[in-house]
Each structure stands twice: as structure tokens, then as C-alpha cells.
Design a protein that fits this description.
alpha+beta, Chalcone isomerase, 6-stranded antiparallel sheet
């Protein structure tokens, strides 16, 4: 019984320390983002699992820059920290599937957007950040934790990309509510 208790305790300590590290990653923005803004507010976060496998942690942020009087800007940021390796083509396929499910195929130039994303997005390794910044002026950009990946020059892209997670018609409503801070 003592050996079993020690084994159980070791497993719990291991699980807890891993859980804390993974959750902590979703509670910070990469410095490449946070250094550019003077007001950073986390809206919500979620852990996405599929078939019991931890895929990623995501957090939604509101950023404001009012350093220059009369020249205030703001942005919405979706930060994703991946818990496993994922090929870029899988990210593209999932993105396309979600846009089609949202009914965007007829409303937006999905093929052009996906072509741009294909050139921009790298294969993902466990622990990698993929951060999307959608500015209030309609501009946007994707980042890793250390560099800018690129942007899509279409003001409709940002809201359409965020709608994958935030639309009232999004596939995963539990995660939507958690990102919007509507549930505990």
C-alpha cells in the first residue's frame, strides 16, 4: 500500500507541475507582443482537447496603446500555445473546415487567404506560440514567440479568423465562452 501511495503521489506531482507549466504559458503573451503595448488585459482562456488529447491552450487579450496623446490604438489578440507537434497543412485544413462551417465560403476569398497562410505558417512544435493580432484599424499580423510571420492585407480577414473561436456559431461553444470570460 505504501508503494502505491508513493507512486500515486509521484504521478500527481508530475501531473500538477506539468499542468502548471502548460497553463502558465497561456497566461503570458510573448514579449514581442507585450513590449509593444502599455495596457494588456486578459479576457479569457481555454484548453482545447480532442479525443482526450491536449491540443493547445488559447487565451484572448485586449491590448491598448495610449502612449501618444490623441493617438490611442487597440487590438484583440488570440494567443495559442500548442501542446503537440502539428504540421502547417493540418492547421490550414482545420482553418478551412471551420470557415466553411461558419458559412464563409461564399462571403470571403478563402482560397486567397489560405494561400497567404500557407506561405506564412510554419510547422508547429510542442510549446510553440502562434499569436494573432487584429488591430482596430483593420490591420493584422501573426507572430511566433520571437518573430512576426506576416499579415494579410484584408480588413475582413481579422474578424473572420477570430470568428473561428469567437462567433456565436463557432463549433466549440464551451471554448468560445471561456475565451470571452463568460464561464469559470
Amino acid at each position: 500500500m505504501k508503494k502505491f501511495s508513493l507512486l500515486l503521489l509521484a504521478c500527481l506531482v508530475s501531473y500538477t507541475s506539468n499542468g502548471i507549466a502548460e497553463t502558465a504559458a497561456a497566461n503570458v503573451l510573448p514579449k514581442i507582443i507585450s513590449n509593444k503595448w502599455n495596457v494588456v488585459e486578459k479576457v479569457g482562456d481555454t484548453r482545447f482537447k480532442k479525443f482526450g488529447l491536449h491540443i493547445y491552450d488559447a487565451s484572448l487579450w485586449s491590448l491598448k496603446d495610449n502612449k501618444s496623446p490623441g493617438n490611442s490604438t487597440s487590438a484583440t489578440v488570440l494567443s495559442i500555445v500548442y501542446a503537440r507537434n502539428i504540421k502547417a497543412h493540418r492547421l490550414l485544413s482545420s482553418t478551412h473546415k471551420e470557415w466553411k462551417q461558419l458559412g464563409f465560403a461564399q462571403q470571403h476569398p478563402l482560397d486567397a487567404w489560405l494561400d497567404s497562410l500557407e506561405k506564412m505558417w510554419p510547422d508547429i512544435s510542442k510549446g510553440d506560440f502562434l499569436v494573432f493580432v487584429n488591430n482596430d484599424d483593420g490591420s493584422n499580423a501573426f507572430y511566433t514567440d520571437t518573430e512576426i510571420l506576416g499579415s494579410i492585407n484584408d480588413s475582413a480577414f481579422g474578424p473572420a479568423f477570430l470568428d473561428i473561436w469567437l462567433s456565436s456559431n463557432a463549433t466549440y461553444q464551451k471554448h468560445r465562452k471561456e475565451l470571452l470570460g463568460e464561464s469559470n
